[in-house]
Structure formats: structure tokens, C-alpha cells
Design goal:
The complex is a heterodimer. Chain A is an alpha/beta fold. Helices cover 53% and strands 7% of the residues of chain A. Chain A contains 20 helices and six strands. The longest helix of chain A is centred in the middle third of the chain and has 34 residues. Chain B has a five-stranded parallel beta sheet with strand order 2-5-8-1-9, with helices on both faces. A two-stranded antiparallel sheet of chain B has the order 3-4. In chain B, strands 6-7 form a two-stranded antiparallel sheet. Chain B contains 14 helices and nine strands. Chain B has two domains: 133 residues, 3-Layer(aba) Sandwich (Rossmann fold), CATH 3.40.50; 83 residues. Chain B is of the alpha/beta class. Classes of the chains: A alpha/beta, B alpha/beta. At the A-B interface, helix 2, helix 3, helix 11 and helix 13 of A face helix 2, strand 1, helix 9, strand 9 and helix 11 of B.
């Protein structure tokens, strides 16, 4: 057992999960006290001792599936459902699945799965899944793949849409359903289908491990942690997962900004100091200070939503949307080559998808040709909203500062910075690319309180930590 | 009372009216076996605090609770010298020389124990609940480290006090800030999320007497549906329990659009959330 667990810990570390020496020892001790017969017990034991952050659980789950895959079913049962089981792992299992196979009836498999899902029968579901992977995945031994394609192929051949429709029908029964019931039923079916998908994926991984060994499969499956994925190149599934992480992040930001400073930083209270000095014969030995006013953060967000920023702007808008739930004094603006206020689209409780589509249809963010023009956007912003900036306003601009070689007009930015508490620029490009080509970053950077490279969720988190500094102390990153 | 398997934990918690899933019972089992604190994280209202209470009930231990807040310090969390009593002691006894008095007034008699020290000094095993630990500042967190790793408290005047019995420690966090690595390293980590519909149905049946199986299933499914929306505050388990109780009080047998529309305010606490949910789930406004 010991080598397997050290291997598992190595894999976690390789995937980026920080596992300290103490935690590794804890895991070993914990494993000694538990009953190793239970796979779930082992999984939760390792999880509790090794993973201390919710965001690392995905990496943990993948590694666990690979290192501690479910014990294969006894041979005789396999043979019963799979006449080709005797061919061995290096045999022609893959070809058999795609080739003509006399006694295989796809309808029978389909019905078996349908029945298993409808009756929530785990045992027969698992058997059905094994069958499905045998017949439909067409796995080829020895190929260094992660199994995504096999999953896709199996699902396509299973005709998932039909399965979903029939499942809906069989669960609905005879009665007429109200719309609410229909919705609940649909969600029930979706969760069942999701379960089927997970089972199939696990089965495929199990076979990959049997074929190529743990280390090799784990290496293929290894992906960067969600906080290290480059926002400019994130896939839509990455984005969906990041969106889940944004919620807690904005809550953190709100908590940090609202935190009262506990130090005595208020101004000298002259009257009370003199009053107190009477006790010491007129010597002001104990200076009194006013209580600092509780801080009500006011944040204005300016997002570049032009084409070159597509992935990133979706992310920043998501962040904006999440922030709107926590800050009553948040105003958001979107720009391409001119700027418009979009605060109302992002009010609390609004739907994110709807808000985004309203921005593209209702907000006036395009003036001439729809290519980024920071100069004009900033100038319009200053003309229209500049007078409403107060010394308590923190202005955050997100964008790559790629200006299509138009005039930067950074003088406006200086005025904006002067009128506000702080001006922060978040740039999703690697700092090394700033000022290359049409990027006007350094023109703008010199007027900002701080400039941050925000390519990953982790960098956004670091930024959240620094934003809490009072404007005067915010350190320059550039 | 000691558990010899995770399944016993689940059974004991069940008798305390708490339905634990595999993860929860495994971690509680480990906590007791390894003598390590458990850091419980998750959204508000999923039963983090409830877990500690249920463990206390199930094991027959006393529960000592430390509610954390911003500005919590040593004097409120660990111990404090009872200086009024010390003053009295000095004044009552003018004949003795200073040395003997000063030695005397720093004895256990003049010590006011606060929750953490109380847990250490308890003669019977206890459950120590440190609630909402993410609310204290990072510096205050360090106070907890000695207790959590060695179950001891150092008092300069008295020396080190070690626990008589090993307390079971639960820390809860709503994740408003990242806890320090040092703290996390000393704990077992347990993330509790909203239960799936099946488990929520069981929880409802256990917690709400008189709730029919059919209605419990419906309530659980509606809750799942609402949680899938993007809301300011998703309904917590305690709110679904409240809702189920409301339905019973109104002698509702079947959840339909009208009932849902009338009682939505029990589940959701923001007007914008209520409007949004009504729009999504209730197509025709109730007449």
C-alpha cells in the first residue's frame, strides 16, 4: 500500500496540489487506522488529509480514479456479458467493438441502461456501462490518450438524446404534468444522465489504467489547476469552472474592503485632547483621535469587451456580475471604441447570459468601426461621468491596452486618476508583451496607482489582496 | 464513547438527528482516531455548526463553543486574570510580604477560563467548536495553533497546561478569506456542500415530523431546482426545513405553482431572488 500512496502523493504534487510533508505523514497514519476494503472510505480519508482547498478537489478526484480504480468484476461475470473477454487486454477488443458482432443488440443495451437509470439500480447500471464501453468505445490499446474521445464516441453511439427523451417519458407516467413538475422532472433526468456520463468516464479510465499503467494515464490526464489556466486561452468548460470560483472570490473582496481598520488612524481630536489634558495639569500626555469613518467602498469597473478580449471580457463581466451582488456602490462600464454604462444590466439577481446579450444589443459601445479605441473611450468616459468621480471611488480598468495605433490620449487618464481614490489597470497579457505592437500600456501605466498582470485566477486573487491597501500605500507593480 | 468504524459514526449521528454522508462520517471517524481537529467549510446553512452539536450529542460529550468575531483576543478566547479578585486579595492581606502575595495571586484561583482553556482543562472529554474562524484576523489565528496541534496552552505565570482528555475539535469557516497554511496543515479538511436531492429528502424526513415521503421528495427537488439558478443567496438546508414546516402548517399535500409562489419568501430572503425564481419556476402568475 505504501508505494501506491507515495506515488499518489507524487502525482498530486505534479498536478500542482501543495501537499506538505506533515500532510503526507498524516495521510499514512490515517490510512493505517481505516478499513481498506471501502474505496469511498479510502478516498475520503486521503481527501481530508491531503486536500485543503476546494479548488484542488478536481485534480484529486482524477488522480484518485487513476490510482485506485475500482476492482474489476470477477471474470465469470465478465465472460457472461462479454463473449470476447477471453481475448485479453492486448487482444482485438477494440476491433470487435467496431466490427460486426452477431449477438450484440444495441437496442437491448439501450433498454438495459434505460431501465437501470429509471430504477436507480447501480449494479445493473454499472453492468450496462461496462457493456457499452466494450461495444461502443472502440478503445485501441497502447494509445497515449486521456479517453475524452472514447467517452464522446460511446455517448454518440448510445444516442444520448433518445435516451434522455425516453427516460423523461417513462418517469413522467400517464398524468398531465404542470410546468413546474415538468421542470423538476427534466432536472431529475439531467442528473441521471450526468451520472451515466460519469460512470462511463470512470469505466474508460479504468481500462486505460489497465492498459498503460497508472503513471502514464495520470500524466495524460493532468491538467493545470483552475487558478493557473491562462484566461486568454481558457476553454468554455474551464470558464464555467472558474465562474464557480469567482463567487467566493468576490465575497472575499467584499469582506476585505468592508473590514474596518482597527488601528488608530483617525485625525487628532483637538477638543477631547485638551479636555483630557486637564487631568495632567494641561500637558497633553494622552492625545485623543477621531474614529476613522467606516469605509464604504465604491468601485467603478471599466471593461474592454472588444473581439480580441473575448474570453477575458466574458470572465471580467462574470466577475462584475458577481461583484454587483456584494457592492451596492458598484458601477460598471463597457467599451470598445466608445463607452456606455452597463450597471443596470448587472443588478443583483439578474441573469448573466441575459446581461451579456443586453450589452451587445442595447449598450452603445461601438462608435465607428468596432476596433478598440482606448483614447476615445476614456475621453467619452471622462466627459460623461468624470464629474461624478469622488475621492472615495476606486476605478478599475480591464483591458490589453491594444489601441490599434490610435492616439493614446493618456492625459484624460491622468485627470481620472486625480479625481479618484485610486486607478488600477488589470491587463490579461503577459507583462513581456506590453508595449509591443499596438499596445499603449506604458502610456497609461504611468498614471495608474498600480498595474497588474492578471492572466490567471491566482493573479486575480493576488490583486484582490492588494486592493485592500489604502490608496496612498498601494505599491507600484511596474 | 469511541467509534470503531465510520458506519458507527453515521448511526450515532443519525440518532442525534443528523444525517451524515460517507464523507462526513469518515472524517469524523478519522478525527477521533487520529485526535486531529476538523476544519469544516461550506456555504452558509448546510449544517456545519449542527455537525459539531450532533457529534456532542451522539458521543454524550459537553459542547464548548467559541464564537469568533473580528477583534477576538486572548482575553476572550483563552484566559484572563481576574484582576478585581487579585486586588481584593492584596488589600485583604496587608501583613504578608510582597513576595508571597505576588506568588499567590497568580495561581489558578485567580484565573478566568475562557472557552479554549476550558476545553483543555475539562475533566470529561468535550467537543470544542470554534465557529466562523475566518472572521478573526490572521494574527489572532496564531493563538489557535498551539491548541490545535498539541492540545496545550502556555500561561507565562503558570507554565504549560496540557489537556486532561483529548477534545474533539471542529472549526467552521464560511470561506470569506483564505485561512493560513499553518492552520490548514493541522486540520483535517471537510467540505460540506448542499446535499443532493436524495439525501436532502432523507434529511427533511428526519427533521420534519409529519412530512410525507412524497412531499419531502418534492421539496428536495424544488430546492435543487432553485439552487441551480444564479441567485444572491441560494436556499440553505435550514431554509428548506423551514419551508417544509411551513407547508405542513398550511396542510399542503402537493407543491404546485400557487403554493410555491405564496411561500417562496420562506426559502429566499432577497426580493430580487424571489422575483427571479418566480419568473423561472412559476410560468403563470398565481391568481
Amino acid at each position: 500500500m505504501l508505494p501506491v500512496i507515495t506515488g499518489f502523493i507524487d502525482e498530486l504534487r505534479a498536478a500542482g496540489v501543495p501537499v506538505s510533508m506533515v500532510e503526507a505523514i498524516d495521510a499514512m497514519k490515517a490510512v493505517e487506522t481505516i478499513d481498506l476494503g471501502s474505496r469511498i472510505g479510502l478516498r475520503e480519508t486521503l481527501r481530508a488529509t491531503l486536500v485543503k482547498n476546494l479548488r484542488h478537489e478536481r485534480a484529486f478526484d482524477i488522480a484518485f480514479d487513476v490510482y485506485f480504480s475500482r476492482v474489476p468484476m470477477p471474470k465469470d461475470r465478465d465472460a457472461e456479458s462479454d463473449p470476447e473477454g477471453d481475448n485479453g487486454p492486448e487482444g482485438t477488443g477494440g476491433e470487435g467493438a467496431t466490427g460486426g458482432d452477431g449477438d450484440f443488440d444495441p437496442n437491448q443495451l439501450f433498454n438495459a441502461l434505460l431501465e437501470a437509470l429509471a430504477g436507480m439500480d447501480e449494479e445493473s447500471l454499472r453492468r450496462g456501462v461496462r457493456d457499452a464501453v466494450d461495444r461502443l468505445a472502440g478503445m485501441e490499446p497502447g494509445r497515449p490518450v486521456g479517453g475524452t474521445y472514447y467517452l464522446y464516441r460511446t455517448l454518440r453511439r448510445l444516442d444520448l438524446a433518445r435516451l434522455e427523451a425516453q427516460l423523461l417519458e417513462s418517469l413522467a407516467g400517464e398524468e398531465d404534468l404542470t410546468e413546474l413538475d415538468q421542470r423538476l422532472l427534466r432536472e431529475e433526468v439531467e442528473s441521471l444522465i450526468e451520472k451515466l456520463r460519469e460512470e462511463i468516464q470512470e469505466e474508460i479510465r479504468r481500462r486505460l489504467v489497465a492498459d498503460r499503467g497508472r503513471e502514464a494515464v495520470a500524466k495524460t490526464l493532468r491538467r493545470p489547476l483552475i487558478e493557473d489556466i491562462d484566461l486568454m486561452h481558457a476553454t468554455s468548460s474551464d470558464l464555467a469552472e472558474m465562474e464557480a470560483a469567482i463567487g467566493p472570490l468576490t465575497r472575499k473582496l467584499a469582506a476585505r474592503l468592508a473590514r474596518r481598520r482597527r488601528k488608530r488612524t483617525g485625525r487628532l481630536d483637538f477638543r477631547r485632547t485638551v479636555r483630557k489634558s486637564l487631568a495632567t495639569g494641561g500637558v497633553p500626555a494622552d492625545p485623543q483621535f477621531r474614529h476613522p469613518r467606516p469605509h464604504r467602498p465604491e468601485v467603478w469597473l471599466l471593461c474592454d469587451i472588444s473581439g480580441s478580449m473575448a474570453t477575458f471580457s466574458r470572465f471580467t463581466l462574470q466577475f462584475t456580475h458577481a461583484m454587483a451582488n456584494h457592492f451596492s456602490r458598484l458601477r460598471s462600464f463597457a467599451f470598445v471604441d466608445t463607452i456606455d454604462e452597463v450597471t443596470e444590466f448587472f443588478g443583483p439577481g439578474t441573469d448573466f447570459g441575459l446581461a451579456v446579450s443586453r450589452i451587445t444589443t442595447e449598450a452603445e459601445v461601438i462608435w465607428l468601426d468596432g476596433h478598440s479605441d482606448y483614447g476615445n473611450s476614456l475621453e467619452t468616459f471622462h466627459n460623461r461621468y468624470g464629474s461624478q468621480l469622488t475621492p472615495r471611488t476606486t476605478v478599475i480598468i480591464t483591458g490589453d491596452a491594444r489601441n490599434n495605433y490610435r492616439p493614446a490620449r493618456d492625459g484624460v487618464l491622468a485627470q481620472i486618476a486625480k479625481a479618484s481614490r485610486g486607478l488600477v489597470w488589470l491587463n490579461p497579457e503577459p507583462a513581456a508583451y506590453w508595449d509591443t505592437g499596438d499596445s499603449a500600456m506604458s502610456h497609461y501605466a504611468r498614471h495608474c496607482t498600480s498595474v497588474h498582470e492578471v492572466r490567471t485566477l491566482r493573479q486575480l486573487e493576488d490583486f484582490v489582496e492588494t486592493l485592500t491597501l489604502p490608496a496612498g500605500r498601494a505599491h507600484q507593480n511596474v | 464513547m469511541d467509534f470503531d468504524a465510520p458506519i458507527r459514526v453515521a448511526e450515532a449521528l443519525r440518532s442525534a438527528n443528523y444525517l451524515a454522508d460517507d464523507r462526513i462520517s469518515q472524517v469524523v471517524f478519522l478525527a477521533q482516531r487520529l485526535g486531529k481537529p476538523v476544519l469544516v467549510e461550506g456555504p452558509a446553512g448546510v449544517g456545519k455548526t449542527e455537525l459539531a452539536k450532533a457529534v456532542a450529542t451522539a458521543t454524550g460529550r459537553d459542547l464548548i463553543r467559541l464564537q469568533c468575531y473580528e477583534g477576538l483576543d486572548e482575553a476572550k478566547a483563552l484566559y484572563e486574570w481576574n484582576y478585581k479578585k487579585q486586588l481584593l486579595r492584596i488589600q485583604a492581606d496587608v501583613d504578608h510580604d510582597w513576595d508571597s502575595i505576588s506568588h499567590d495571586i497568580f495561581s489558578e484561583e485567580f484565573l478566568l477560563t475562557r472557552p479554549l482553556l476550558a476545553a483543555i482543562r475539562a475533566t470529561e472529554p468535550v467537543v470544542l467548536l470554534i465557529d466562523e474562524v475566518d472572521r478573526v484576523e490572521v494574527e489572532t489565528e496564531a493563538l489557535l495553533l498551539e491548541i490545535l496541534s498539541d492540545f496545550q496552552v502556555s500561561i507565562p505565570e503558570l507554565g504549560t497546561m496540557t489537556a486532561n482528555t483529548q477534545p474533539l475539535v471542529f472549526l467552521t469557516s464560511n470561506n470569506t478569506r483564505e485561512l493560513s497554511e499553518a492552520l490548514k496543515r493541522r486540520c483535517l479538511f471537510l467540505h460540506i456542500d448542499y446535499p443532493d436531492a436524495e439525501r436532502e429528502q432523507l434529511i427533511l424526513e428526519a427533521r420534519v415530523p409529519g412530512l410525507s415521503e412524497h412531499l419531502a421528495a418534492q421539496v428536495a427537488k424544488v430546492a435543487r431546482s432553485i439552487r441551480s439558478l444564479d441567485l444572491k443567496k441560494a436556499p440553505s438546508v435550514s431554509e428548506t426545513i423551514d419551508w417544509a414546516r411551513t407547508l405542513i402548517a398550511l396542510s399542503v399535500e402537493e407543491v404546485d405553482e400557487e403554493v410555491l409562489g405564496d411561500t417562496l419568501h420562506v426559502l429566499l430572503k432577497y426580493q430580487s431572488d424571489i422575483e427571479r425564481t418566480a419568473k423561472e419556476l412559476i410560468s403563470a402568475p398565481a391568481t
